[in-house]
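Please, structure for the following, as tokens.
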Amino acid sequence: MSKTKLIKNMNDFILGCIMLVFGLFIFLNKGIIKNNVATNTGGMFARADVYIRMLAGLIAFLAFLLIIKAINFSKSKEVKGFRFVLNKEIALTALSLIIYTYVLPRIGFAISTSILMFLLVLMLSVRELTGGERKVTKKELYKLLLISLIYTIVLVIVVYLIFSQLLGVSLP
């Protein structure tokens, strides 16, 4: 008689635990935002800490669901052990986000976010198109450049309008 494992998918379980701790840390941390002042135009919901706590609460909730999903309630024999994957897209995304947090206060929201989104959309579109198996043709590259440019412009405008007009928050 073989024993069934408690955890069905170890990657989901570990990621869920890490993100649950991360989400709860941010949600419960009193000093996460400095100079936390509500503006007249946006009210209480324009405060940065409210937005960050809402995101942290969502992260913690989804992490909890991921942990529950990873548990082997059905006593299935098919279990997945831990497997760490690090490819160039993951490394480049992490590096670009680190650089983004550094340059955002220096060059502003519109320019830094546009550059970040353009590069990430282009990189991930190339990966999606080729599967990492082949080179992109010139025709495909022009199409991907155009799609990335359009997506970037639309995204930056929409985010700017939501924060500046709807929420009354000034962006850096």
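The longest helix spans residues 138-166. The chain has a mean pLDDT of 83.
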